[in-house]
Amino acid sequence: MANPLLVPFSPPDISEDDIRAVTDVLRSGWITTGPVAQRLEEAISSRCGTTETVVLNSCTAALEIALRILDIGDGDDVLVPAYTYSASAAVVDHVAANIILVDSAAGSPTPSIDDFLTALTPRTKAVITVDIGGVPYPSDRLRDALATTKFTPASDMQAALGRPAVITDAAHSLGAVRNHQNSGSLGDFTAFSFHAVKNLTTAEGGALTWRSDLPAEQAAMAAKIRRLALHGQSKDALAKSRAGAWDYDVVELGYKLNMPDTLAALGLSQLSRYDASLRRRHELISIYTSASPNVEFMPHDGPGMKSSAHLCITRLPSHRTDERDKIIGDLGTQGIAANVHYKPLPLMTAYQRHGHTIASTPNAMDYYRSEVTLPLFTSMTDEQAEYVIDRYSRLVMP
To answer: What distances in angstroms separate CA 198 from CA 62, 113, 244, 259, 350, one per listed residue?
Structure first.
């Protein structure tokens, strides 16, 4: 089979409607956070089945804000999977809490619920779960399991919860469903990413949403998150722009994490066709899986579960990084950009400096050694997908 085209890994899918949405904002005279960002927040809440959402400049910001809303800080422990991108764990250090890395379950990129429960310490205030590849972690079941554990709260919010909080890193999983619950409502707090390579992009950006039945007043919590995201100001730029309304207070020492309307317009436009995007991603995965039954793929459908099909993750029979890396290199020479998701955090210099060791996460290391992620993007053609899986299958099963 001839190479039809070079196959990139995950280019953004930008339509003419997306471009018009952004230029309309640029022509409007209001380009920072304002009415378009508010409409995007409402649309995300509607999709997730939540009451409030705040759009921010990244998923990382959303994760950190969730920790701060929960008053997690110095001396507290937060459990994080060892098999994830750095952002899931670095935010714990940002609030001066302790990162407790939890190994994956055998043969899985994620810890089991029992793995998390075993890793609990008397100082554990939260667990960060990760929806790798768009497959939603059973964060709802983890919440139930944590409710039976011993817990010592250190703030009113923690006391109201009565257990360690579950913060879901759903960078990959907008649109996923588990047990009839949408991604965004499985954990207590959920952080989304709209980075350039995500299913839905705002170029850079993210959002924080939370369960509607959290023991907190919804509007008040949303207002506090917006203050934290904008220097702790009592008024945002839109409110201050109204005639005679210039005066404001700084209620707390906050940050600069807001999403401008220019980026929100791109996300809102993409969200209008998001269901079609999800269907196309699942179609492409079906092309991959049906053409190569001998390749082990991460499942994106199962009893009560449908993922957002963000990544096409596969595992090789060999668990040797040199063999895996050679296959990725061979794909590259044939015009196919493959990737690895992820290097376990103890492999990274910064985490080693924090005392984390490779020996403490053998299952995560084993999964990493055999993992290859194939290209997947909504503008990918059937011909490209068939070419990728043909070449990959030849390398995996020569």
So the answer is: 16, 27, 41, 16, 25
Residue type present at position 169: D
Give burial (CB, 10 Å; 0-12/13-18/19+) of 90: middle
Angle (CA) 5 8 10, round 5°: 140
CB neighbour list of residue 361: distance below 8 Å, 6 or more residues apart: 82, 83, 101, 103, 104, 344, 346
Spatial distance between the Cα atoms of 284 and 396, rounded to a whole number of angstroms: 19
- CA 269, 270, 274: angle at the middle one, nearest 5? 130
Amino acid at 119: A
Confidence check: pLDDT of 44 > 80: yes
Helix (H/G/I), strand (E/B), else coil: 326: helix
Give the C-alpha separation, 232 to 256, whole Å. 9
Neighbours of 317 (CB within 10 A): 11
pLDDT over 70 at 5, yes or no: no
Is pLDDT at 151 greater than 90 in this prediction? yes
pLDDT band at residue 2 using 50, 70 and 90 as cut-offs: very low
Run of H or E including 65? helix 59-69
- Give the integer Cα–Cα distance in Å for 293 and 289: 6
Contact 134, 310 (CB under 8 A): yes
Task: For residues 276 and 156, give the distance between their C-alpha atoms in angstroms, rounded to a whole number.
Answer: 43
Handedness of CA 368, 369, 371, 372 (dihedral sign): positive
The span from the CA of 398 to the CA of 392, in Å, is 10
pTM higher than the cut 0.85: yes
Report how far apart the first and last C-alpha atoms of the chain are (Å, whole number): 16
In terms of Cβ atoms closer than 10 Å to its own Cβ (0-12, 13-18, 19+), residue 246 is exposed
Using one digit for the tens of pLDDT, what is the confidence trace for 245-281?
Answer: 999 999 999 999 999 999 999 999 999 999 999 999 9
Strand, coil or helix: what is 121? coil
**Residues facing residue 189 across a β-bridge:** 167, 210
